[in-house]
Design a protein that fits this description.
It contains 20 helices and 18 strands. By secondary structure, the chain is of the alpha+beta class. Its EC number is 3.2.1.26.
C-alpha cells in the first residue's frame, strides 16, 4: 500500500533525526516536527517538514510538569481515507438456540459491518494521517475523563483488525509516533522513571497556530501515568508495543520498520528497563497495583500473571526482531537467561490443578532448607473454600500472583489466555486452561464473555484488598466484571490450540446482545446480565475485540502473526532444569578470588 506523501516525508525526517544521531536526540528528549500543508495552483497539496529541538514548561490545572510535544502544523482531516468496509467474506454464523434474552435470529454479518463502521469512526488523526483510535465514543456521557485519548493497550486489538484488513498505515504511524513519545521527559514530584517507559496514552490536541484560525497546530500530549488515576506507570504499554511491532512485520512482510535504528534502540530501551537488576529473587517482574489492564487497586501488586505473560511474549518477540550485532550480545544473553528462568518459574510454581491443589493442602510449613518443597512457605489454610468446588477434575490454570507466604488463587483471564498465546504455558497446560474454560463456562462466560477475573472480592475482603473502591464492587468492572474485549485473546488462544469451537461459541453468545447494548466497556453481575454501572458505550476495544475474533474465525491461519512458539533451545533448557535438581544447594559462581573488605 502506497504511503501518503506526508507520511513518506515524516519517515525520512524521523530516520534522519533519530538515525545516526539517535542517542544524542534522545538525550535532549525534545523534538518539534512542523508540517505545513498548502494547496498549490493545480489543486495538489505540498507537504514540508522542519525539525527544531525545543523544550517548554506547560502549565496545567492543578499540575505543573515538564512537557515536550511533537508538533505538526496542518489542516484538520475531515474524513477517514483509505479504509474500506467490504472484504468479501461469507456471512457469519447466525444463532437461535432458544435462549437469546429476547433476541431472535442474530445477523452476524450486519453486526460485523456495524462494528467495522464504528471502528473507522473512532480513528484519530495527526497531520492528516491516522495514528490510533480513541478509547470510547460515548456521546451520552457528560464526563469524558481520558476516554477521548489513544491508549496503547486499547489500540492493540484495533491495530490487529487494521492489519488483518490490510490497512497498514495506521499501525505503522502508531508504532513510530509512540516510539518518539518514549523519549519524552516524564516527571512526577521531581522524580523521573527509567528510560524506555512507554506512555499509557496520548491525546492529539488541535489548536489555532499563533491566533490564526485558518491554520491549526496538532500537538501530541502523552500521559506516562503522571495524570492517571492513582498515578501508576503503565508497565504493560512497552510490552504490548513490542508485540504489535512484531505482528506488523509478520502481517505485512515489511521488516524495514523493525530494522530502523530508532526502532531497534526503542526495543533495547524497553528490554533494559525490564531486565534491570534489582533486589528480587525471582525472574518475574515486580510491579505495583494497577500497572496493567487492571489499572485500579485490586490486590495484584507483586508478580501478577498478566504482566509475566506479556513480559515473556515480548521477550520472545524482541529476540526475533533484534538485529545481530556485537552491541546486543550481552542483552541477548540476559534475555535468553530470563526466558528460561521465567518459563520454569511460572510453569512450576503458578500452575494449579486438582493434583497440585491436593499437594498444597498437605504442605509442611516453616521449612528452612535449600531442599524445601514448600519454597514460598504457603500455609494450607490459604486455600479458599470457593476453590475446592471450583477446581474441576479436568483442567487447571495459572494462579494470579505468587509472593512469599501468599498465593492469589483467583483466575485472571488475560494472563492465562496470553500464557497460551505467548508459549509461557506448556502444551498440556494450555489445553488444561481451555478445558477449565469449558468446564466452568457458566462461571467464566455466563451471558457475556469474558470474566476479567474470578471470583469477585466481596465484603471485608473487598474493603481490605480493593480499598472499598466504589467502582470495583463485587462482580463489577475489574472485580469480576465481564469484558467483551477479551474475546480476541480467547480466540487467538483457541486458534493456537486448534480448538476454534470454544471461541465460536463465545462469539455467538456475544452477538446476542453486544450490538443492541451499544458495545459496552464491561458488564456487571455474576452472570453479566447488566451493562456495567459506569460502563462507557461504544467502547473501541469492545468493538475491535469482536472484530478480531470474527476475522480469525474466518481465517484461523492469520492468528500466527500474534502467536509465539517455544523454540527447541528453550525446551531443552527447561528439560535440563527439571531433570537436574532445581533445589540444588547454592554455590559460588566460579569466583575464586577472596573479597577484600
Amino acid at each position: 500500500m502506497a504511503l501518503p506523501e506526508a507520511s513518506l516525508c515524516l519517515d525520512r525526517l524521523l530516520l534522519s533525526s533519530f538515525g545516526a544521531n539517535y542517542g544524542k536526540q534522545r538525550s535532549l528528549g525534545l523534538v518539534e516536527l512542523r508540517c505545513g500543508l498548502r494547496t498549490l495552483g493545480n489543486g495538489t497539496k505540498r507537504c514540508g517538514f522542519r525539525s527544531v529541538s525545543f523544550c517548554r514548561t506547560d502549565e496545567r490545572k492543578n499540575l505543573t510538569k515538564r512537557s515536550c510535544f511533537l508538533r505538526c502544523k496542518c489542516q484538520k482531516a475531515d474524513s477517514v481515507s483509505g479504509l474500506t468496509a467490504d472484504d468479501g467474506r461469507p456471512t457469519s454464523l447466525s444463532i437461535n438456540d432458544g435462549n437469546t434474552n429476547g433476541v431472535g435470529t442474530v445477523d452476524g454479518r450486519k453486526i460485523e459491518e456495524e462494528a467495522w463502521d464504528l471502528l473507522k469512526e473512532s480513528v484519530v488523526y495527526y497531520c492528516g494521517n491516522p495514528i490510533g483510535t480513541i478509547a470510547a465514543s460515548d456521546t451520552s456521557s457528560s464526563s469524558i475523563l481520558n476516554y477521548d485519548q489513544v491508549f496503547i493497550r486499547d489500540f492493540i486489538p484495533s491495530g490487529v483488525v487494521f492489519l488483518l484488513k490490510g490497512e497498514y498505515d495506521i499501525v505503522r504511524n502508531f508504532i513510530l509516533h509512540t516510539l518518539q513519545l518514549q523519549s519524552w521527559e516524564k516527571t512526577m514530584d521531581c522524580h523521573s522513571p527509567g528510560q524506555g517507559l512507554m506512555p499509557a496514552s496520548f491525546k492529539v490536541r488541535t489548536v489555532p497556530l499563533d491566533g490564526d484560525d485558518s491554520v491549526t497546530e496538532d500537538v501530541l500530549d502523552p500521559d506516562f501515568g503522571e495524570a492517571a488515576i492513582g498515578r501508576v506507570a503503565p508497565v504493560d504499554s512497552g510490552l504490548w508495543w513490542i508485540i504489535l511491532l512484531r505482528a506488523y512485520g509478520k502481517c505485512t512482510g515489511d521488516l524495514s520498520v523493525q530494522e530502523r535504528v530508532d526502532v531497534q534502540t526503542g526495543i533495547k530501551m524497553i528490554l533494559k528497563l525490564c531486565l534491570a537488576d534489582g533486589f528480587d529473587m525471582f525472574p518475574t517482574l515486580l510491579v505495583t497495583d494497577g500497572s496493567c489492564m487492571i489499572d485500579r487497586r485490586m490486590g495484584i501488586h507483586g508478580h501478577p500473571l498478566e504482566i509475566q505473560a506479556l513480559f515473556y511474549s515480548a521477550l520472545l518477540c524482541a529476540r526475533e526482531m533484534l538485529a545481530p550485532e556485537d552491541a546486543s550480545a550481552d542483552l541477548l544473553r540476559a534475555l535468553n537467561n530470563r526466558l528460561v528462568a521465567l518459563s520454569f518459574h511460572i510453569r512450576e510454581y503458578y500452575w494449579i490443578d486438582m493434583k497440585k491443589l491436593n499437594e498444597i493442602y498437605r504442605y509442611k510449613t516453616e521449612e528452612y532448607s535449600y531442599d524445601a518443597v514448600n519454597k514460598f512457605n504457603i500455609y494450607p489454610d490459604q486455600i479458599p473454600s470457593w476453590l475446592v468446588d471450583f477446581m474441576p477434575a479436568r483442567g487447571g490454570y495459572l494462579i494470579g500472583n505468587l509472593q512469599p507466604a501468599h498465593m492469589d488463587f483467583r483466575f485472571f483471564s488475560l494472563g492465562n489466555l496470553w500464557s497460551i498465546v505467548g508459549g509461557l504455558a506448556t502444551v498440556d497446560q494450555s489445553h488444561a486452561i481451555l478445558d477449565l474454560v469449558e468446564e466452568k463456562w457458566s462461571e467464566l462466560v455466563a451471558d457475556m464473555p469474558l470474566k476479567i477475573c474470578y471470583p469477585a472480592l466481596e465484603g471485608q475482603e473487598w474493603r481490605i484488598i480493593a480499598g472499598s473502591d466504589p467502582k470495583n464492587t463485587a462482580w463489577s468492572y475489574h472485580n469480576g466484571g465481564s469484558w467483551p474485549t477479551l474475546l480476541w485473546q480467547l480466540t487467538v488462544a483457541c486458534m493456537k490450540m486448534n480448538r476454534p469451537e470454544i471461541a465460536e461459541k463465545a462469539v455467538m453468545l456475544a452477538e446476542r446482545r453486544i450490538s443492541r447494548d451499544k458495545w459496552p466497556e464491561y458488564y456487571d453481575t455474576r452472570r453479566a446480565r447488566f451493562i456495567g454501572k459506569q460502563s462507557r458505550l461504544f467502547q473501541t476495544w469492545s468493538i475491535a475485540g469482536y472484530l478480531v475474533a470474527k476475522l480469525l474465525l474466518a481465517n484461523p491461519s492469520a492468528a500466527k502473526v500474534l502467536i509465539t512458539e517455544e523454540d527447541s533451545e528453550l525446551v531443552n533448557a527447561f528439560s535440563c532444569m527439571l531433570s537436574a535438581n532445581p533445589r540444588r544447594k547454592r554455590g559460588q559462581k566460579g569466583f575464586k578470588q577472596p573479597f577484600i573488605i
